[in-house]
């Protein structure tokens, strides 16, 4: 607002008019500039953060594949079909899957072996208990079993029975043809393997063996 008597041509009035115009306020221009700069720097920071996060993700994946190639034995074996070419990620994953499946099979096999060994140990424990009972029974009755015969005598009885049966079998069987052989075998069984006949053979073998022992 001009003072009374002031002329519009007065230079001080022009300056006052210039500073009173809002469109020419220098503070407003600086504010707009700083706001625009802030927006651009925020976008840059977001872009930089996204780039860093993506790089970290890529590095983590690469370290994972490197660790797999170090841990999985088949990844360390040279594949002559590839030459000196580096293993691709797909091959590393496939070899890892194959190795895990192999480990599962080995684990199952070892579990079966452990189960078998446990059964064997249990059987041995039972045998140990039985033998301890036998030893204890023998210690309590030292004269018991003195008349027990040996396994050799048992075998001699079986051999004597078989020898007697074979003699009759050899004398009765014809080998002129397979049909005749079959017919003779059935006839021999009906005649020489009757309970009474077998009983007589066994009695004869036992009597003969008893005479040899005593």
TrEMBL record:
Keywords: Activator, Coiled coil, Cytoplasm, DNA-binding, Nucleus, Phosphoprotein, Repressor, Transcription, Transcription regulation. One of its GO terms (cellular component) is RNA polymerase II transcription regulator complex. Residues 32-43 have a biased composition (Basic and acidic residues). It comes from the Eukaryota. Its main location: cytoplasm. Efficient DNA binding requires dimerization with another bHLH protein. Binds DNA as a heterodimer with MAD1, MAD4, MNT, WBSCR14 and MLXIP. Can also bind DNA as a homodimer. Transcription regulator. Forms a sequence-specific DNA-binding protein complex with MAD1, MAD4, MNT, WBSCR14 and MLXIP which recognizes the core sequence 5'-CACGTG-3'. The TCFL4-MAD1, TCFL4-MAD4, TCFL4-WBSCR14 complexes are transcriptional repressors. Plays a role in transcriptional activation of glycolytic target genes. Involved in glucose-responsive gene regulation. This is Max-like protein X. It comes from Bos taurus (Bovine). The gene is MLX.
